[in-house]
Amino acid sequence: xxPNAALQYPVPSGSSQLSLDNITLSxxxxxxxxxxxxxxxxTTAKQEFGLIVAKKVASSNAPxxxxxxxxxLGFGSVTWLYLQAESGTTNGLQSVYRLNTAGxxxx
Length: 107
Description:
This protein is mostly beta strands.
């Protein structure tokens, strides 16, 4: 329920806008190339959880009834994924799951 609840609130503007000064960063996600997602969880000297270089192992459409987007307007929740670690991964990380998505599909 939490992703859908969060999706219903607009991003704050002005002085209350989210910034790195008032939230805890859990990691960075980027693509090494067109098919290889990377999750860098080393965000501070005190939070060095590792880096996972991954490949898609399985996917599933978001369940029927998943949030479409803010105020139920949009194109549906993104596909759920199971990603497995590949060479280059550190700290014993093994997998990533993208679940409970809310909105996000492009038109």
